[in-house]
Write a structure and sequence with these properties.
Rossmann fold, 4-stranded antiparallel beta sheet, ligase, 15% strand, EC 6.3.1.13, 13 helices, binds zinc ion, 2 domains, Four Helix Bundle (Hemerythrin (Met), subunit A), binds 5'-O-(N-(L-cysteinyl)-sulfamoyl)adenosine, alpha/beta, 409 residues
Amino acid sequence: MHAWPASEVPALPGQGRDLRIHDTATGGRVTLDPGPVARIYVCGITPYDATHMGHAATYNAFDLVQRVWLDTKRQVHYVQNVTDVDDPLLERANKTGDDWTALAERETALFREDMTALRMLPPRHYIGAVEAIPGIVPLVERLRDAGAAYELDGDIYFSVASDPHFGEVSGLDAEAMRLLSAERGGDPEREGKKNPLDPMLWMAARDGEPSWDGGSLGRGRPGWHIECVAIALDHLGMGFDVQGGGSDLAFPHHEMGASHAQALTGEYPFAKAYVHAGMVALNGEKMSKSKGNLVFVSTVRREGTDPAAIRLALLAHHYRADWEWTDAVLEEAEERLARWRDAVSRPDGPSADALLAEIRTALADDLDSPAALAAVDRWAAAQTADGGTDEGAPGLVSRALDALLGVAL
Ligand code: 5CA
Ligand code: ZN
């Protein structure tokens, strides 16, 4: 699948600091030490009802990771998927009478437009579940042949008991896992499973649903977790630097993915850090497709809001916080954008050297974008109050905001 065009990342003097980031698996901050090529996998959308502000906030967090790494003069190998076949997508298409492939294509196209408008840097590889199927089948066969997977009425399940590290990503107890499994696509109630938590790797063809040739598995379609594992292993390999997504993916998705990969390869870990963004809510409830309480990036753009203001609204919240989307959040971002634009519109201003260092320090410290915004606010206030004589300063501020925060003034 093609991704979307990259916005230019302006060059900055000096270089940024190494990223310290909260890792769900260890429950604390870790200093990432990627090689010259940092490797990151971020779970992509299931393409219906995209792109809402919750999606945008999560992708904003991982865009910052990429920008911090680029600022340390590393290359970034970023991979993202599109879950372009899955139960909820098929259910939605059935309900509306849409063709499921047309729905997926239309929503993926809209997502690309939104990502471009928000200046999110594209992944190097953008891979659909459907196109990954030929790579998924042999992985499921290998798991089955190694005794890490078993058949139940034609469906193939992964045995969580096959990975000694199972449970280490989310750190949840069995009861919490069971509840979340039922809530998030699992089937803990199904009879005949070795462990109620065991997730499906391959679902045998169902009447009226799309299916693909699965070799010795028979016709069917892939489970959700193995999709991301196959894509990540194919393009990044084991031990990549960051596995990313919203906090609702920690269990079961990232837990199961790690176990699939570790059982497959015998290597540990799947990812060096598991990084999760908080949930954006609307009217007191998590913004979610199933509840339908959504604010779309495309709607707000169509209403005439500058995408840079949307981006500032996202950046005003720490990525790990759960927060609420409101009109006031957007209004505040629009006011801030206007203040900043005014401040950089003059030919000279207060020196921006300290500001650049502050933004770099804030972002390297678990992506503290609110602290970065506060630093820019102080520079803009000083510019308004007494100005300054540094001729290059406003230009440097503009370039820094674009390169490090994806905000074009
Ligand atoms: N296709 C799978 C991942 S493989 C999926 O979860 N798709 S999604 O469309 O449901 O979500 C895409 C990303 O947005 C995920 O990382 C998810 O955690 C995140 N996300 C979904 N809802 C919210 C929300 N309300 N706030 C923040 N992030 C969210
Ligand atoms: Zn995923």
